[in-house]
Inverse folding.
């Protein structure tokens, strides 16, 4: 150990080194046939995070392959169960995905620093026996003493090497961790694990070394949460891998067939030196925590990220930090419970959270008895804690069971009076809000992405990210990561969340529905997208029109053209139309007469308006657009389903259905009074 290290960290390194070395791998060219000896030079390192899954850096799997696609590329994985080259296995792996996704299109040159988070997940293509690391559940690591590992060829000997350092700070908005300059990161160590020695958990992936000497950067493992989300109705890759991770450690902890030291065993030793202000009752033992993670992994994943955040907030007594990556699994929720502010310590918060999970609505029915087994564990674990807490947990469990049963009856269409419900419109859950403001008279824009919690908690807004001075052409790239994070927080198993775009009417032609945020599929194909006036349409007249449009039947009315010729509707004419009318505008929203018509429609209280980006050919007739919309509104019957029907039209057009091409550029202005917009605006740039 380098000078200055404490005896505690030296002991932790001694305990953790065999476990980490055994899970760390060498990444190289895919082996040819049965020959594993001719694998060529080392590209970098990686490590097993779950059975059959290796985490490394994107630039490692991109070595020597500038002309090939990274996702789907086959690479070689050599692993050393004994931590050295005396016992070696080599297997082929396939790159499942890389982060960020744009690395597939825009790859840096050789020796250039790759974009954060610079991660790759590799699937092993053959069943092999190996060990796995323990990943932290914290979204932001503590700055403490650490060790990093990777494959080196010091003195001509290829081996897995571990060295110690200190975590010096964060970079890249928390995506990267700065490593101290205690020792040099050698070539080949990129992609290896970074371990927090105080807590015995992997917190990062070695990314780069400084050109001028020791130290470098690592990527936070929490960036795995930015893996692309799947289509609704499917379990995402992140959740699948983390479930396998937790079940691996759970099974190792319970097994009595192997006397080798496990990560849980090492955590027991590391915990001995830590003081607990609650006399041993303030936190779970490592064995209890491993068991809890295993029980949570046996349940179906949560319906949404917001469901996890809400349970964590109820358990710890305050809102979790909104700047952290979205919690996508039940395990991620545990990472929000460290150092709670209330009495009782971390153990009490964790047991409250686990109680909430045991009665939560799951994406699909859990395995028989899985939720009851989790509750039995809570009740048994609470026996060593305070009696009032045990009583509180029992009451929470009873209330949760009653509430879950009520929700299930409603979901089955059986309300309190036994009446069947009408087909639903947009879900009442959270939506993603994108706001953009013109930066003075300049042609640049400030922006903000937030989570609008929705009708269940009116006025509740959780910020995601903000920026200044973006051009219109640069907005899609600037907003790609913030929007992806917002969608991860809001999407549920049943539905993709609504995207609300609050901008001035001249920006209602912004092609947000065509932006590709994740998976290369346009946003408007993946989810409903609507525009909103930043200052809303709130008035008694607006509320009456909104209610009438929601109930239907709908009437369409051309507002900015007559027989294909532009016209400017008068405010009096708009105000005199029937309440169930949906004004339709077919010309450029940024130009007259359409811009004035949008303002007049807002002033007249219209909460639902249809407009479009003009076609590329200015001589093209608008008749097919109006004809298609008239049929669409007649089939919809009521306004409540319009956002989803427009999404379905975009999906058809994206799938090359000629009968839907008339809807190209179609946009919906949707002023839902139940989704109040925040009143404050961001600062205008930097001072």
């Amino acid at each position: 150990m380098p000078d200055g290290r404490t005896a505690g960290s030296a002991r932790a390194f001694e305990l953790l080194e065999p476990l980490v070395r055994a899970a760390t791998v060498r990444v190289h060219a895919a082996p040819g046939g049965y020959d594993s000896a001719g694998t060529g030079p080392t590209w970098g390192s990686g490590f097993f995070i779950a059975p059959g899954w290796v985490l490394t850096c994107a630039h490692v799997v991109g070595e020597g392959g500038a002309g090939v696609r990274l996702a789907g590329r086959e690479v070689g994985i050599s692993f050393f169960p004994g931590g050295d080259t005396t016992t070696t296995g080599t297997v082929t792996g396939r790159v499942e995905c890389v982060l960020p996704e744009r690395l597939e299109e825009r790859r840096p040159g050789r020796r250039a620093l790759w974009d954060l988070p610079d991660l790759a997940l590799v699937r092993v293509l053959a069943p092999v026996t190996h060990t796995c690391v323990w990943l932290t559940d914290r979204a932001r690591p503590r700055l403490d003493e650490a060790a990093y590992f990777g494959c080196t060829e010091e003195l001509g000997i290829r081996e897995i090497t571990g060295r110690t350092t200190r975590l010096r700070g964060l970079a890249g908005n928390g995506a990267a961790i700065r490593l101290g300059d205690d020792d040099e990161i050698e070539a080949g160590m990129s992609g290896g694990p970074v371990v927090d020695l105080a807590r015995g958990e992997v917190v990062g992936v070695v990314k780069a070394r400084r050109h001028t000497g020791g130290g470098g950067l690592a990527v936070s493992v929490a960036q795995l949460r930015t893996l692309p989300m799947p289509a609704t109705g499917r379990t995402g890759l992140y959740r699948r891998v983390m479930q396998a991770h937790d079940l691996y450690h759970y099974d190792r902890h319970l097994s009595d067939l192997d006397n080798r030291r496990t990560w849980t065993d090492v955590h027991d030793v590391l915990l001995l030196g830590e003081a607990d202000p609650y006399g041993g009752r303030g936190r779970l033992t490592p064995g209890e925590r491993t068991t809890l993670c295993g029980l949570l992994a046996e349940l179906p994943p949560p319906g949404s990220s917001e469901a996890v955040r809400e349970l964590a907030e109820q358990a710890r007594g305050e809102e979790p930090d909104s700047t952290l990556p979205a919690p996508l699994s039940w395990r991620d929720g545990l990472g929000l419970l460290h150092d709670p502010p209330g009495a009782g310590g971390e153990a009490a918060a964790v047991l409250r959270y686990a109680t909430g999970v045991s009665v939560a609505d799951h994406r699909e029915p859990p395995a028989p008895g899985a939720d009851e087994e989790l509750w039995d564990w809570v009740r048994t674990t609470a026996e060593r804690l305070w009696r009032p807490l045990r009583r509180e947990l029992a009451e929470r469990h009873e209330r949760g069971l009653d509430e879950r049963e009520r929700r299930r009856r409603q979901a089955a269409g059986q309300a309190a009076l036994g009446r069947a419900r009408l087909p639903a419109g947009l879900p009442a859950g959270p939506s993603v809000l994108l706001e953009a403001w013109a930066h003075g008279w300049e042609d640049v824009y400030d922006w903000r992405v937030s989570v609008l919690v929705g009708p269940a908690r009116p006025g509740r807004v959780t910020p995601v990210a903000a920026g200044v001075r973006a051009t219109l052409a640069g907005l899609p790239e600037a907003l790609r990561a913030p929007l992806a994070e917002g969608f991860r927080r809001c999407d549920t198993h049943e539905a993709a969340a609504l995207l609300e775009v609050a901008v001035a009417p001249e920006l209602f032609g912004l092609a947000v529905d065509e932006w590709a945020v994740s998976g290369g599929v346009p946003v408007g194909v993946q989810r409903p997208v609507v525009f909103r006036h930043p200052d809303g349409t709130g008035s008694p007249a607006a509320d009456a029109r909104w209610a009438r449009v929601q109930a239907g039947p709908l009437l369409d009315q051309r507002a900015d053209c007559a027989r294909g010729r532009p016209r400017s509707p008068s405010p009096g004419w708009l105000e005199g139309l029937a309440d169930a009318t949906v004004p339709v505008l077919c010309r450029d929203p940024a130009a007259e007469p359409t811009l004035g018509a949008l303002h007049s429609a807002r002033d007249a209280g219209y909460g639902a308006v249809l407009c479009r980006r003009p076609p590329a050919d200015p001589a093209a007739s608008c008749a097919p657009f109006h004809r298609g919309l008239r049929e669409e509104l007649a089939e919809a019957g009521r306004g409540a389903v319009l956002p989803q029907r427009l999404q379905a039209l975009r999906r058809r057009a994206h799938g090359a259905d000629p009968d839907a091409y008339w809807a190209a550029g179609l946009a919906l202005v949707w002023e839902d009074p139940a989704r109040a917009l925040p009143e404050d605006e961001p600062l205008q740039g930097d001072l």
Q: What stands out?
A: Confidence is low (pLDDT under 50) at residues 33-37, 414-423, 682-687.
